[in-house]
């Protein structure tokens, strides 16, 4: 039961109680949570308290209310650190999720002015373009465009990219180890193509991360654009003073 003598508002106590059940596995992803009436009766609170608690959980991305159907537990968000250089696949596996990938495009092409500037090469120099759809537990989670400037002796094949979930793991086998990166993060809205691939509505919030990744010898190897679903993707940064 909730503590009515606590200075913590009842709606927040209820929100935290339901969150404990979600994180503890009593309420599972995609499962319907108790109805408003059931919560009112179970916790002896008002409808306003229940609705404020559910609004708080929805704003934090833990539940989704669907008109006429009920309120459902959202699957866990993919959290990635901005302070540590890890691959998408490494992050998912560390959180107990299964990474997968669909190869959308793969070709060698001349570098555009923007890509050339990011990779510190001449415009028109040959680069590899790898476009992939990233999945977490079989659910589309992000679009990933990688522009690679590799030594002319290094070749990539379509079969390698289809077999290896992690592009960085593939590059490491070829002697290229990523060491550091510069990144920017901004919010965008899904266009028609992005919405179709990520299975969201047109205009849905997305997170765009652009970055340049450097090898151990300090040379820029990859310029990437990662477009993640705003409802499933979260970046975090730990800072100290």
Verbal overview:
- The chain has 241 residues and is of the alpha+beta class.
- The chain is built from eight helices and ten strands.
- The strands form three sheets. A six-stranded antiparallel sheet has the order 4-5-6-9-8-7. The chain has a two-stranded antiparallel sheet with strand order 1-2. The chain has a two-stranded parallel sheet with strand order 3-10.
- α1 packs across α3.
- The protein starts with 9 loop residues before the first helix and ends in a 5-residue tail after the last strand.
- The model has no long low-confidence stretch (mean pLDDT 88).
Task: Assign the structural class, choosing from mainly alpha, mainly beta, alpha/beta, alpha+beta, or little secondary structure.
Answer: alpha+beta
CATH class descriptor name of the largest domain: Alpha Beta
**Widest sheet, order of strands:** 4-5-6-9-8-7
CATH architecture descriptor text of the largest domain: 3-Layer(aba) Sandwich
Q: Please outline the major beta sheet.
A: 6 strands, antiparallel
Head-to-tail CA distance between termini = 39 Å
Model regions low in confidence, pLDDT < 50 over at least 5 residues? none
C-alpha Rg (nearest Å): 22 Å
Strand fraction equals 25-35%
The gross shape turns out to be elongated
Helical fraction equals: 25-40%
Order of helices and strands: HHHEEEHEHEEHHEHEEE
Any idea what the CATH superfamily of the largest domain is called? Chorismate lyase-like
What oligomeric state best describes the polypeptide chains here?
A: single chain
Q: How many individual domains? A: 2
Query: How many β-strand runs?
Result: 10
| Mean of pLDDT | 88
């Amino acid at each position: 039961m909730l503590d009515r003598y606590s200075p913590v508002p009842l709606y927040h106590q209820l929100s935290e109680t339901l969150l404990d059940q979600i994180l503890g596995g009593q309420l599972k992803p995609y499962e319907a949570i108790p109805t408003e009436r059931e919560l009112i009766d179970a916790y002896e609170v008002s409808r306003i308290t229940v609705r404020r608690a559910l609004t708080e959980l929805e704003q934090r991305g833990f539940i989704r209310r669907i008109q006429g159907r009920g309120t459902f537990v959202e699957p866990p968000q993919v959290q990635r650190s901005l302070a540590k250089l890890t691959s998408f696949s490494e992050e998912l596996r560390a959180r107990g999720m299964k990474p997968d990938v669909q190869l959308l495009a793969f070709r060698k092409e001349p570098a555009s002015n923007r890509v050339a500037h990011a990779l510190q090469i001449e415009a028109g120099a040959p680069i590899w373009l790898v476009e992939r759809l990233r999945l977490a537990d079989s659910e589309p989670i992000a679009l990933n465009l990688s522009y690679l400037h590799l030594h002319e002796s290094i070749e990539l094949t379509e079969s390698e990219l289809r077999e290896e979930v992690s592009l960085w793991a593939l590059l490491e086998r070829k002697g290229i180890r990523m060491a550091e990166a510069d990144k920017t993060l901004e919010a965008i809205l899904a266009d028609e193509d992005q919405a179709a691939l990520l299975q969201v509505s047109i205009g849905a919030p997305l997170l765009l991360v652009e970055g340049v990744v450097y090898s151990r010898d300090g040379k820029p190897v990859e310029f990437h654009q990662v477009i993640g679903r705003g409802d499933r993707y979260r970046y975090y940064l730990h800072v100290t003073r």
